[in-house]
Design goal:
The chain is of the alpha+beta class.
Length: 166
């Protein structure tokens, strides 16, 4: 076992500390921030989006077009789902995505809803198959997501991603 010790002069010690602090400050300012939208920003964004009167697949197509999405003329799937009374880990994490866009599935526990799944035809900078899921209850959108079924897939909120976040 080798032990090495050294004696640093005060000037070298403070020089190393100074360089470390400057490096940390530079990193804080140079690393981009990925802040989530505030509740006020979500409300402003959703103010122009109509979540009501979505009663059939044609209405879902119109709803998705408000976000700029272009989808196939008919849904890939249209089915009834039941929102569970108690959320497991998967449903809880899905509901967190919904809360990011001002929606909340917990209000609809034990309710039967309709889920429409459409193939998106204009997802930016991605060659794989992308789907839009929209869940409605009594003609109102209560949840939605954009996702892919690829092995290294993704899922995110309904708004189209900006070019810098792709």
């Amino acid at each position: 076992m080798f032990v090495y010790s050294f004696k640093a002069t005060t000037l070298k010690f403070f020089g190393i500390i100074g360089v470390a602090i400057i490096t940390l400050v530079a990193l804080v300012f140079l690393i981009p921030s990925y802040s989530t939208a505030t509740t006020k920003e979500i409300a402003l964004m959703n103010e122009s989006i109509s979540f009501d009167n979505v009663k059939n697949s044609n209405d879902v197509i119109k709803f998705l077009s408000q976000y700029g999405w272009e989808v196939a003329d008919s849904p890939v799937e249209e089915c009834e789902i039941t929102i569970p009374k108690e959320f497991d880990k998967v449903i809880s994490s899905y509901n967190e995505i919904q809360k990011q866009q001002g929606l909340d599935l917990s209000k609809y526990s034990k309710k039967t809803a309709l889920r429409y799944t459409f193939k998106i035809t204009n997802y930016p900078n991605y060659d794989g198959t992308v789907y839009a899921n929209v869940i409605t209850y009594r003609g109102k959108v209560i949840a939605g997501d954009i996702c892919t079924a690829d092995a290294k897939g993704f899922i995110h909120t309904l708004p189209m991603p900006s070019n810098d976040s792709i």
